[in-house]
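Aim 2, interim progress. The first record below pairs a target sequence with its structure tokens.
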Amino acid sequence: MKEISLRLKDKRFAYRIYLILGALFISSLVASNLIFQKFFYWDFFGVYTFEISVGILPYPITFLITDIISEIFGKKKANQIVTAGIFASFFSLLIIYTASSVPATSWSPIDDDTFDTVFGATAIAVFASMIAYLFAQYIDIQIFHFWKRLTKGKHLWLRNNFSTFSSQFIDTATVLLLLCATNVIAWDRFTTLLINGFLFKVLVAALDTPILYIAVYALRKRFSLKSSDEVELDI
């Protein structure tokens, strides 16, 4: 891939875009770890009924964002965002532990038991999510750039979906294995949640392809990039 050096004005704009995408990525990742204990069902036009955690809702956004960053800013910058997300998740866990350790007042709207019920399994969830996250995100980036090199920057839909499908299955299976092994989720729910989680992520990945095309097209036009070009950021 060819890195393109931008004018100072364009480089500042590119840096702001990179920061915004990074902020969206990290907030989506942290939120998914905090809200995972609520489960819901979704009837997909009478074809299939999903039973999944609400934590899965923001998670596909992270793969869309790393694909955009990979396409425009390159593999190195995508990996940097993934690493930042790991630190952010563990830091959020530290904050939750601190909040849990201090006693609630008698007039607190949320008492200690309620707080622990909502956030008590967060440590296990974050650990499980991080293990899956490490596997899935780095694999997603590797596969994405493998197909980008193979197709010489063409067929964006191919590398977007192939990389996401593979990484999402690994992510879903790893999280559920760890949560079931630690008794956060019963083993008899494993197969159902694996199928539901993977199918939901595949569906979202397919649906977000137009969004990826729009974002990549707009950024390529803004920075005058060819299909195989990437923006060079000196950070």
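The second target in this work package is listed in the same format:
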Amino acid sequence: MKDKALLFINGDAPKSFPDLEKYNLIACTDGAFHYLKELGFPLNKLDFISGDFDSHIGSDKNVYQEKFILTLDQEKTDFHKALEIILEKGFQEVDVLGGSGGEQDHFLGNLTVAYSFKNNLNIKFYDEFSEYYFIPKNFSLKNVKNKMISLYPFPSAENITTKGLNWSLTNDSLSMISRIGTRNFAAEDEISIEYGSGDLLFFVGINEIEYPEIYRNN
């Protein structure tokens, strides 16, 4: 069993890179290749660069020819096609940078792609504000006190019960078109979330936030 993959896609470029030694595979889409070059990323660390290369400069191709995987299927996004390659290579854990920012239809599309792979890949997105991912029906997380927590139904989730959040849920339901669970925060160091059906997209802030006392549910 392989361990973890790192994938860069064409949203906002990360302000810093994670520890590359944690990953057994590092890849990017053709659009992300440009900002990696500009940021001085060690391109020799890339295992593959995938896409239809509609946003790629041909001169680069001559240098990294052996790492390019041409994927021309216009019915799928470059993100989707890169995940297919990663899955075929035997990975189950994928950290994604560059999933947010830029054009917002891309961001929504990236979430939809991740949703389609949720039963086969554990995908975590990271940006400068938060990390976010789909969570299982029983979920817990430590070391989060005073961090922003958001629960976003995709498109709905039923019988949700939370512990450790400032505004708790008890057998509640959330729906994309009626009630969502964004902008909560962790009142305790460890939180837990259980739900019966549907799917939840979970966001946790990178940094602790000083919440005024008036927002605290005492």
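The radius of gyration is 19 Å. This observation will shape the mutagenesis plan for the next reporting period.
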